[in-house]
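Q: Give me the 3D complex with U2F.
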Amino acid sequence: SDCSFLIYLSEVEWFCPPLPWRNHTNTPTQHTQHIKSPKRQVRKLHLNIYDKEILTILIHVGFLTEESGDVFSPKVLKGGPLGEMVQWADILTALHVLGHNLKISMSVKELQGFLGVPPGRGSCPLTGPLPFDLIYTDYHGLQQMKQHMGLSLKKHKCHIRVIDTFGTEPAYNHEEYATLHGYRTNWGYWNLNARQYMTMFPHTPDNSFMGFVSEELNETEKRSIQQNKVNNMAVVYGKEASMWKQGKESFLEILHRYMEVHGTVYYETQRPPEVPAFVKNHGLLPQHELQQLLRKAKLFIGFGFPYEGPAPLEAIANGCIFLQPKFQPPHSSLNHEFFRGKPTSRQVFSQHPYAEQYIGRPHVMTVDYNNSLQFEAAIQEIMRTKVEPYLPYEYTCEGMLERLHAYIQHQDFCVPQPPFIPANFSRLGSASGSRVIGPLFVPLPNSTALGWASNATAPTAWPPLSSLRLLVSQEGQSCVEACQSAGWICEPAHFPFINNKDALRGLEVQCEVVDSEINHILPAFSVMRRECSLQREPLLFSCAGHSPKYRRLCPCRDFLGGQVALCRDCL
Ligand code: U2F
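A: Here is the predicted complex, encoded as C-alpha cells.
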C-alpha cells in the first residue's frame, strides 16, 4: 500500500488502487512511514484508518460547471489560471488515496442527481437525510446548492467544505454583521464556521489550510539537479502575455545583462509583442517539460502577477531561487482590482507571501523592483548563491494526506460548538511585550457543565486544549500577527475557551466593566478606558480582526515543523 505515496497528486496518475486496509478490520490499523521533514528530522506519518471512517463524499466543482459560466476551462491551454485545477486534482486524489467513496459532479444536473433533488430550475428541499457525509465544493457550487436545495441547505450545511483559494474572514462570513458593517461582498456571508472554508495557502488561520501537492525529488534527483544547474539561466513566472505588460522592460534589461532569460508564455501563431526579443519563449509547456526547464534554471522570477500560485513552490522544489517584488503599499481588496470583492482584508506584501514568510532566504528573495540597485544586487547575489531543492513538508504528498486525514477525522461542524468555558488560567511569563499565559492544559468540564444534556456526548476539543497558549496582542495587532510574533499560530477553535472573565483575570487585565458584544475583534480590552468585552457571537471569533484601540485576547497554539495546520498533539 505504500506505493500510493508515489502518486504525483497534481498529475492524477493512478499507480495504485485505493488502499486495501479499509476493507479488513474494525481494529485501528496504523500505517506508519518514516519520512523526512524539511528540517531533516525523522517524523512519522500516521494514518489511522478505521472501517467506520470510510466516508461517502460528494465533490461538486462549481467553477467548472457550465451554469457558472466556466471561464476557466477554455483558457487551460491558453495561459489561464491553473492553480485551482492543481488543487482540485490533488483534493480528489488525496480523498481517493485515503480510501473514501467519492462522487464527482461538474454540472448542476449531476449535482441534483447525487443529492436526490428533482431536476428543474426551482429550489426543492431535500426531504430525506443528506446522502453524503461530506461535500467539497466552492462558492459557485454553494450558490447552486442553495438554488436547488432551498431551505434544506441550512440543515445540512455543517457537512459542507468550501474550497476558497484566497480565504474568507469571519467578518465577511457573518451575513448580518457583514451587511451592517460594510463587509458584504460578492462572496462570503454564508454563516458557516470559518474553518469550513479551505484555502490554497495558510492565509488567516480562521480558515482551514487545504493546500495542494508539489512534486518532491529523491536524493539522486536532487544531486543531479545541483550538478546540472545553469548558473546564468532565468525563467520568468508568467504564462499569459498580459503578465508581461507595463513597466517590466527596465528590470528585464538588467536581468538580461547577467542571465539568459526564458519564458513559457502562451502564443497562438506569433510571438507576443509584450515579450522582448531577447527572451527565449518556449510557449506554454506541458507540466513535465516545465519541470525540466526549472531543473536547469537558477532563477525563477516573478513580475507581481499571478498572486499566490503553485509555480514558485515547484521552482524552489527544483532548486531555483525565486525572486519576487515586494508590494509597498501592500495589495488588498481595498486598493487592488484583483482582490476587490474578495471576502478578506488581508494585506499582501509581496507576490507570494507564503514563499516569503514560510520559506524565505536563500530560496526566496523579496525586493523592491522600483529600486534598480537593489534589484541588480539581488541578481548578483543569486548568481553567487548555491541552494538545494526544497519543498515544505506540508506541500508533499505525505503532508497533504496527513493534513486532510486529520481534518476528516477531527473537524466536526455538526456538533454544537463548545459554549464559553471558565478555565483556571495562571501566569506563565511574557514574550516580546505581549503577556503569555497558561494553562498548557485546560481541563474540559463534564458535559452537563458544558450545557449538553447529561446523556449527550460532549465533543472533544480539536486541536486538543494541550496546545493552547493564551496571549494578549498589542493595540492594532491581529491575533494572526500576535501569535506569529511569539512563534505560534492563532487557533480559532480555542476562542470559546478564552472568552471568559477567568482569562481576563489570569492576564491581570484591569477591567472596570466587562460586557459582551457582537464584534469580530472580541474578546479584547481597551487599556485607556479600562473596558473589557467578551464575544457574544461565536461565528465572529476571528484571528484576523484588529482595532487600533483594543488589545485582543489571542488563543495561540504550537504547530508541527513543516505542517502549520496541525499541533503537536493533533495526530
Ligand atoms: C494562480 O494561478 P496560476 O495558474 O496563474 O498559477 P501558476 O503558479 O502559474 O501555475 C499553475 C500551474 O501551471 C503550470 C505550473 C503550475 O502547476 O506548473 N504550468 C504549466 O504546466 N506550464 C507552463 O508553461 C506554466 C505553468 C493561483 F494558483 C490561482 O489561485 C489564482 O487565481 C491565479 C491568479 O492570482 O494565480
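A quick observation: The pocket of U2F is lined by residues 81-84, 86, 165, 200, 239, 264, 284-285, 287, 290, 306-311, 314 (CB under 6 Å).
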